[in-house]
Amino acid sequence: MASPPPPGIYVPVPTFFSKPPPNEPTLPLALGTQTEHALHLAKNGIRGLVLLGSTGEAIALTNEDRRSLIMHIRQEMDRAGYKDYPLIAGTATQGIEDTIKQLQLSKEAGAQWGLVLAPGFFATVVTQQGLIDWYTAVADHSPLPILMYVLLLAPWLQASLSQSSQLTYRRNRYHYPAVSNNISLTASTFTTLSAHPNICGAKLSHGDISLHTQLASSKVSSMSHDHFATFTGLGQQLLPVLMVGGAGAIDGLAAIFPRTVVRLYDLIKDGKWEEARNLQEVVARGEGLVVGHGVVGAKEGIRRVLGWDSECRLPLRKGMSDEAWKQWEGVTSELEEAEKS
Q: Which residue, 27, 202, 250, 321, could crosslink 148 as a Cys pair with Cβ 3.0–4.6 Å?
């Protein structure tokens, strides 16, 4: 049975781009900036990196981009003394063969795990058995152990909202479900797939704590923590997720404030509850920047707080206006103070 990534805080890193040469249709990779940011995260306690996830604009990168970025980060982390530093490579394809190919490229470039986004193109008609069969086919042929990646509007909230209200919620409250068309996997589907020797965990980027609990606290042998790790994709719920047995978080805010999110993790693990609750409240407010603005918000925070600038590849917009940023100045100032402590 494959082993999951070690517990802790991981960052779904944005992909950094340079200014485009004249007459070129898209932005080239900025591998130097990518390395500087990666090393900054490692030096501040981040346990590992998720490269080429939804925050990494995976859907806008070619396979050659993928290979170059992973290989460069692996080489530079090794050179800086972070040998065997955990690297998880995301996939964002719908086809089994394309997904396997990306996992093969990722393995060759130096990643140790794959994070495989659920295939959401036909979300409204896909059955749970179809998802079991799809993930099984990928895992059967993947050279990397894989984690399943699910992003959805919480089922209890989805059931209570009209279709138009669901759309408004997704637009205003949470950016990411759109990348998987709000497809969902049930607890029983996760349990079935956990028996596969090459499937070693899941990232759940939604607020359904019940599902986190059913996975992280499961007594099923294939869901034991030495084989199957449950990560939340939302740092604003790190405390409850760790309390029910979660392995940690793959958290976008930690791309901007790594020490703070790592400190929150450590406080919870050390049982320092009052300090943990107080810091969790600040982190929860700060997470709205990434939840509400996605990769654009993450890159804007990195630019304004850490000084590394990068636009997004089209069709994403180029950044946030000063007026839009103002609503986040209060909480980001609090987080900057926490980062120094």
A: 202
The torsion angles phi and psi of 126, rounded to 5 degrees, stand at -75, 135
**Residue 121 neighbours by CB under 8 Å, 6+ apart:** 94, 181
Read off the pLDDT of residues 294-336 as tens digits, 9 standing for 90 and up: 899 999 999 999 999 999 999 987 789 999 999 999 999 999 9
248: left (phi over 0), alpha (psi -120 to 50) or beta: left
Q: How far apart are the first and last CA of the chain?
A: 41
Write out pLDDT tens, residues 204-232: 988 889 999 999 999 999 999 999 999 99
Supply the DSSP symbol for 316: S
Let me know: does 73 contact 49? Beta carbons within 8 Å. yes
- Gap between the Cα atoms of 135 and 196, Å rounded: 10
Residue 107 in contact with residue 145, Cβ under 8 Å? no
Q: Which residues contact 338 (CB under 8 A, 6 or more apart)?
A: 257, 259, 260, 263, 279, 282
Alpha carbon of 77 to those of 51, 82, 316: distances in Å?
A: 13, 5, 29
**Which helix or strand (DSSP H or E) is residue 241 part of?**
helix 238-243
229 SS3 class: strand
Residues 59 and 93: their CA atoms lie apart, in Å, by 8
Q: Using alpha carbons, select from 268, 241, 186, 143 the residue that is nearest to residue 229.
A: 241
Q: What is the DSSP letter of 29?
A: B
Amino acid at 255: A
Residues 6+ apart with CB under 8 A from 190: 148, 202, 215, 223
Q: CA of 127: how far to CAs of 123, 132, 183, 189, 213, in Å?
A: 8, 9, 10, 10, 23
Q: Where are the alpha helices (DSSP H) in 44-121?
A: 63-79, 96-109
Its pTM stands at: 0.92
